[in-house]
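tool_call: predict_structure(chain=1)
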Amino acid sequence: MAGCPPCCVRQVRYFLEKDALDANGKLVVDKMRALNKIGHALHDRNPTFRKFAYSPLMKNLVRSLGFSRPQIVQSMAIFKHPKIGGEVNAHRDSWFLLSRPATVKGIWVALEDATIENGCLWAVPGSHGGTLRRSIVFFFVYKMLDERTYAEDTSWVSR
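tool_result:
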């Protein structure tokens, strides 16, 4: 996978919210709210996550989507705590899961009820298609694939 070095996708790492530490590296919020994400090899390293990821339910799901030999390249748990952390801007997961040809797909599974009130996933119909404008390559350095940004180009938004 072009977006992460091999060491990244074979290990489980913990990522903190941007505002969880002060300038001296001291935790300034409750540790249960400081965690932003756990990734990227949960499907191989965590027995509970592995059981779910390789379950007949998930295998049947990806096969129903047309995959003949599905492989898991990355897995993570992302936490969305109230009043901490930054806004997640509109994006396509293929920014983070870049492959040539574009065969990598992401599956989002809510671990608890997701509602409009608590910040559910939003999707723009048809936004999965078209030109990929940018991607994340090696340690989250943005690579612009097109001079336009989504803020400038709204042609992908359904009207």
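agent: The chain has five helices and five strands. Proceeding to next step.
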